[in-house]
Amino acid sequence: MKLTLSVIKADIGSIGGHTQPSPRMVEEVKAQVEKAKKSGLLVDGMVTFTGDDIAIIMSHTKGENNTDIHQFAWDSFIKGTEIAKKYGLYGAGQDLLVDAPSGNVRGAGPAVAEIELEHTLQKPRPAESFMVFAADKCGPGAYNLPLYLGFADAMYCAGLMLPPMIKGFTFRIIDMDNTKGDSILELNAPEDAYQISALLRDNERFGIDSIYSRTHGQKAAAISAQRLHSIAGSYTGKDDPIALVRNQGIFPAPEELVSPFAKAHYIGGDARGSHVMPLMPVAINTPIPGMYCLPIVSCIGFSVDRDGRFADAYADFFGNVAWDEVRRRAQVKGIEMRSQGWSGAAMLPYTELEYGGFRDTVGGLLQRFAITEGS
Ligand code: 13P
Ligand code: MG
Ligand code: MG
Predict the structure, then answer these.
(1) Beta bridge partners of residue 114, listed in sequence order
(2) Which of 60, 113, 262, 270 keeps 20 to 30 A from 278, CA to CA?
(3) Which phi and psi (to 5°) does residue 248 adopt?
(4) pTM for the full model?
């Protein structure tokens, strides 16, 4: 059968500032998912949160970019927003940027990652397993480095030396500055590794849209690479990307995919979407922690049965003691960076500052500069 995995995520409001959705909101979205399972729209579904973002993780048979599935997610977020509004929560409906999406929520605010696959449970996929990464307080390219390392660097993924992966992977890279549509360039690892690096080093402009196996042609990963401020025309919140990644066999193993996150690498995001801070791996359903507004990422893994069901059990990859040391180092790196406040590398460059207000402040001051006499 053809099976589609869809993850759609949005910030629709949170308690006490931009920390986490309320339990009532999460319950409401879960109730919608249960209804959609009963009606047959979804084969299976699950609802989680990471910081202030709610993710709906679904399996179905309708394909990618399906109007019914996207509309269902949108309507579920609207229901959650009604609760956020009723209880006076912060940022109610924040990521629902249009009045009504035209059949597809991509470009309407929510983050979307989808993979349609041939679900046969035969070679080369005798078992189907996948992971869902969800990030909060993060710029759009938060996964650029870890997914590059997981899919293109044998120092992280020794599996690349094995026959099913030795031909490497195709990276479809998106130029997020082009708001006319999805502007994509396909580059192949390993031979284009330096070209891929040259683009992916810029986390604010270029992102990985998807990754394909060059041996089997199958889609290995889908990432929601978009910039909310490009869509909305002004600051509305951080981009907070999600990634859907298949693993094992013809794809990297879970540990080869999560080990790059041990770096807690610096990314754009954090408070007011305008700082440069380390990405801290956290358990699923973790509110924004710590003394700053540290960028966080969760990762859960699923197996899919013959009918496409997955949600009766999951593995929480970052929700265990092995990641405590990384979390501690992320805090230390965060404290170091924040000790220099607004200076230089601690904040994003002028063009990337998410709060338009920062630019207004500087713009107003620029008006007051004057060439001094005699210069
Ligand atoms: P969210 O997009 O998660 O609401 O982040 C807002 C922000 O910039 C935090 O300061
Ligand atoms: Mg928010
Ligand atoms: Mg958020």
Answers:
(1) 6
(2) 113
(3) 70, 155
(4) 0.96
Residues classed as catalytic: 11, 235, 238
Helices marked H in the chain — which ranges? 23-39, 67-86, 144-152, 193-200, 228-232, 254-258, 324-338, 356-368
Nearest-5° Cα angle at 307, 301 to 312 = 40
Q: What is the pLDDT along the chain (375 residues), one digit of tens a residue?
A: 999 999 999 999 999 999 999 999 999 999 999 999 999 999 999 999 999 999 999 999 999 999 999 999 999 999 999 999 999 999 999 999 988 888 899 888 999 999 999 999 999 999 999 999 999 999 999 999 999 999 999 999 999 999 999 999 999 999 998 878 889 999 999 999 999 999 999 999 999 999 999 999 999 999 998 777 777 677 666 789 999 999 999 999 999 999 999 999 999 999 988 999 999 999 999 999 778 999 999 999 999 999 999 999 999 999 999 999 999 999 999 999 999 999 999 999 887 776 668 888 888 999 999 999 887
Residue recorded with tokens 């909060």: 136
- Contact (CB, 8 A) for 152 and 171: yes
Beta strands 280-281 and 296-304 are: parallel
How far apart, in whole angstroms, are the C-alpha atoms of residue 128 and residue 44? 15
Cβ(333) to ligand 1 under 6 A? no
Amino acid occupying residue 91: G
Chain position carrying tokens 């683009």: 199
| Structure-token pair, residue 231 | 């869509």
CB atoms within 10 A of CB 271: 18
Residue 120 structure tokens: 């046969």
What residue's CA is closest to ligand 1, atom 3? 137
From 18, 97, 288, 296, the mutation candidate for ligand 1 (largest count of ligand atoms within 8 A of CB) is 18
- Can you tell me which atom of ligand 1 is nearest the CA of 271? 10
Q: Are 284 and 350 in contact (CB under 8 A)?
A: no
- Please give the distance, rounded to the nearest whole angstrom, from the Cα atom of residue 162 to the centre of ligand 2: 42
